[in-house]
Specification:
- The complex is a heterodimer of chains A (about 180) and B (about 375).
- Chain A is an all-alpha fold.
- Chain A contains 9 helices and no strands.
- The longest helix of chain A has 24 residues.
- The radius of gyration of chain A is 17 Å and the shape is globular.
- Chain A starts with a helix and ends with a helix.
- Chain B has about 375 residues and is of the alpha+beta class.
- In chain B, the strands form 2 sheets. A 6-stranded antiparallel β-sheet of chain B has the order 8-7-6-9-10-11.
- The chains are: A mainly alpha (about 180), B alpha+beta (about 375).
- The interface between A and B is large, with 64 and 52 residues.
Chain lengths: ~180, ~375
Amino acid sequence: VTDAELVALLKANDDQAYREVVARFGNPLYGYIYSITGDPHMSEDVLGETYLRMVEKIDAYTFQGVPFKAWLYRIAHNLAINALKRTRRLVGADALETAAAPADDPASTIAAQQEADAVRVALAELTEEQQQVLLLRFVADQSPAEVAQALAKTENAVKQMQFRALRSLDRLLERQE
Amino acid sequence: MDEVLADILNTCLQQLKAGLSVEECLAAYPQQRAMLEAPLRAAQRLRGLPQLTLPTSAQAALETRMLVQAAQRRMAPAQPPVLNSRVPLPPAATLGPAALFAGVLRALGYRGPLTLPWLRLASTAIALLLVLVLGAGALAATRAIVRIIQGSTASPTSTPTAPVRFTLDGPIEQITPERWVVRGTSIAIGAQTTISGTPTLGARAQISGAVQADGTRLAQTIAIAASLMPSQLPVPTVPPSPIVVATNTPTPKPTATPTNTPTPKPTATSLPAGTTVNISGVIQHISITNNVTTIVVNEITYVLPPNLVVSVGERLRSGVPIVFVAQVNAAGQIVIINVVEINHQRIIINPPRNGGDDDNDDDDGDDDDDD
């Protein structure tokens, strides 16, 4: 099923098409959301919200050649950022960071968790656009061309943004250490 | 310089992805090494972020929630196609005659600006005159031209060109000459639709067809299988409960909680009258037709008698989990005879007026900002 066909079937409320979305994009979207929130439960909630938002807005969506997943990632990104802001408002950033690692993890997993948290914290300090470029490139594993389509930029612009964003990220990570 | 570096970095990133080490990538670009090292290091750490996968059960739960919402959307009245609302005559249509008048003015030798109020008034008056003189035909022609111009600038991607195929497999829930409802989905029956087998309510239909431009699904072939066997229906596990229990104590929960009962299929069942079934599921839809309240759970329609509507009606909402006991009546309908739980809360039929009614409002939807 091509993206255009999938969108047409979704607009026609085809259950099989909805299932196809879950099968095709469920796990990558979850990983993407998790890379923003760092919280599996919150990520699950955000993924659920993303699906519901898709059902709600599919009539207003028009397929214009840009991969359908770009739209889904945009919804997921916005919802994840909103959820994160809301949680930080409620519990504070420090509490969120300490709550991230499960208590029964072995030492190596905790080290990996700390590394992941460090990357996430540094990522959060980049501009919104830089975050999106890096997450789409390295977490969602999209090519520069796909990212360019998703963000309505040229491929060259995305490559340059990627270069600057990675340089900034490295600087921020070094500052943490 | 930035552009060249960005390109080299991208090449290196591809090589890293293909399995090369950072050192190997940098060795290929010794002059740019200092500039590339930091971003490559950062990219490596980004790629190292843990890739979590959602447990299958959670994925299934989210999918179910989405499908319930999709079913609700299906039941909602259809919205007119978006494109139609954009077509009404725009200012360009009224500008047509004015532009024509401006052209006449210019032809008569006027060289000044066309923004003075008197000039605009005069142009409108003369445009009206022109319309009267040239008749409605001229206006229609102007409108047609404007439409053509608009048509050529309309978004080329808003409608799919090729018809999209669909298939559907499920019990027939409703049959009218023009359309059927199969597994909650409305299917249009056209002159070209070929039907094999005898369609009856509850029978399984395998449909293939095409989605029309307006979103309706037109069946092309329908194959009717035999009515679903009683064995596919829920197994009777508890005796029928009294319809109304006037008591101060909660209605006891049946000992055999029907959590894993097979999903029932047809609305009009071939089970013998009097068969009692336990149902557990989420309310997908509620409707009232000719004063008969029906709820759809697990894609099956159940009739809710008026006395139970009075007792539990206000708690019934789409998307809410429900556990109930139903019985097949002489007409083959499945009628609810006792509601055990709604929204995970045990139901007390006819509670005392002074009893604390903890109306569990399970509305967790937040209206957050949406981009």
